[in-house]
Amino acid sequence: MVTLGVALLLAAGLLxxxxxxxxxxxxxxxxxxxxxxxxxxxxxxxxxxxIGSDLDHFTNIALALISFGIGEHVELKKIxxxxxSVALISFCEAVGAFxxxxxxxxxxxxxxxxxxxxxxxxxxxxxxxxxxxxxxxTAPAATLLVVRELKASGPFTASLLAIVAIDNGLAIMIFGFxxxxxxxxxxxxxxxxxxxxxxxxxxxxxxxxxxxVTGFILDLALKNLKGKSERMTGGLALLLLCSExxxxxxxxxxxxxxxxxxxxxxxAERDVRLFRALNSFEPPIYVLFFTLAGTHLxxxxxxxxxxxxxxxxxxxxxxxxxxxxxxxxLAGTPKIIGRYLGLGLVPQAGVAIxxxxxxxxxxxxxEYSTMITPVVxxxxxxxxxxxxxxxxxxxxxxxxxxxxKEEKNKNGNGHAEGKxxxxxxxxxxxxxxxxxxxxxxxSNGVVAFGSTQGAAVAGLARFATMFSHHLRCLPLAVRVVxxxxxxxxxxxxxxxxxxxxxxxxxxxxxxxxxxxPSGLVAAVEYNDAKMVVLGSPLYGATDGYKNIxxxxxxxxxxxxxxxxxxxxxxxxxxxxxxxxxxxxxxxxPILVALDGIGEHHVKLLYxxxxxxAESVLRAKEEDLTDWLEAQSDKLDVEVxxxxxxARVNAIEKESEDIDLVVMATSRKNAIRKFFFGSLADTxxxxxxxxxxxxxxPDGHV
Length: 701
Fold this sequence. Notes:
The structure is a single chain. The chain is α/β, with parallel strands linked by helices. The protein is built from 29 helices and ten strands. The protein has helices at about 1-20, 25-40, 50, 55-70, 75-80, 85-110, 120-135, 140-150, 155-185, 195-220, 225-250, 255-265, 275-280, 280-295, 300-305, 305-330, 335-340, 350-360, 365-395, 400-420, 455-470, 495-500, 515-525, 545-555, 580-595, 615-630, 645-655, 670-675, 680-685; strands at about 445-450, 475-480, 505-510, 530-535, 560-565, 575-580, 600-610, 635-645, 660-665, 690-695. It has a ten-stranded mixed beta sheet with strand order 3-2-1-4-5-10-9-6-7-8, with helices on both faces. α6 (about 85-110) packs antiparallel against α7 and α6 (about 85-110) packs antiparallel against α16. The longest helix is centred in the N-terminal third of the chain and has 32 residues, at about 155-185.
């Protein structure tokens, strides 16, 4: 049942998060909503009777990683000049939240006439003080996850995370003071108030000391751990030991984890490889943590808490927002800090829930638990749903949500530019500036090409002429028209202008046929074409193209080259991604043809299996170099062998400064393509470059 629970939490969390992303909401909101749907407030699939506490260890792991991650962002060199303002803002927002929650709860009780049998004025004061102390706590997890999702960085983000770290320390400390005060006024404690305060400060100091020691041990261990996997394993082991030791000693595991991260990031060496190693381990743990947290949010608490729960929630966030604004004004920080930083402090969860558990576990305070628990859980429910949204909004308004900027550039200006460069208006073929070519007469045959796209036909004519020159053929322009239709006298005007500018004559043929594929195949067979060049459809012109390509490729016996145009056509810098020697053999004649005209720089990118040893990569590089040297048509080729986990990403990276990408693809049937896919087809969809896709017939090489 536990395995099924994990599967449901992960799947539902990811699904709802993707929906939230479409709605421009943080992923963490989706995780929490998924948990609400799966929990007692929804379909009741995940509950205490079905999984009990079997998934609690995921929560402990997540909290250890979260606190450690917060510590990474409290880097003194980054926030050094903001230390005074951060301290002042932290103090003001803590005082603001405490006073406003206390006043709002106390006066709401009296205005609404809420009474408890046997309670006197000091009991209502105690209740208000306890809720005010719990209201100080902020959930670092949701804030940190939003920061990572947005790739947020800058003064605003650094200040926010530092205040979140301080916030929880203050919450734990002030809560201890309030507990001591409540016990004093209720007469249930004989300890002096000053002694209780001392014990509270001592507990915080011990938590920080444990984290500092763990940080130094981590720093020492990192120097002796090699590789990402060793760092991840060793680092996680030490962090979890720190967390469990803090729990065993009744210390704050959150403060200890933050202190460990703080020590590591502020060392002179600033070795952050452990943070990066753990980042790859965190995503499923975070999904489980937040989705599981969502299953514990009960809509029923809203009814149980009544108006007091809503007042607590509103007073808490208002106190923090007002306190931040006041602290920022006193500290003289930029207006953006005072205006929006308070919105990043809305989330509340783990620490607050832990504090109400402490209240319910104390015999002297158990009478307050029945009122405090539904009120705080109402605040947690509302803040966990709205907090990530307000935190995202704050970072966006501060101008530090770099992921949103990248997305805007990609989907806004970048997407619009890409769409334009793939459109007829964006495709352009610069004039032929190399020397004119001399055709062989009589020729050795033809290289057929055909296109109905006016913007692309000049480019097809250029490639067909270059291949014709290598094969000692003539370029043949083919147009398939409906039987009985009239032929325009300037039907081949663009093709003729391009071919003649290169020094070649143009052969043309009009094929009357109602089927474009059969017409093209008929022209190729009749003229005994040595190669066929077709143009991939430009943006918005894809209907029927796949059918044409598959039919032509299946029914001709010569090589087929498909040209995908993007922007201005250049061929000087060429990238050849291959995954086998067979791929290289298939595209090599195309490279020879291109390199025989003008100067080209050719880079061969061999995509090897991931995690291969360096010696294996170098050996493969030598094998490829030897093969190139053995060819009769020698080319000056730069050979690069890389091990990669994602082939398409590797190709994208290497093609940044490339004019033309040439790839081979096999003529797979539909079933083989469905199961094994096609690297070339995927690259065509992802890459914004001019491309040649080479289909070689079986046995041609």
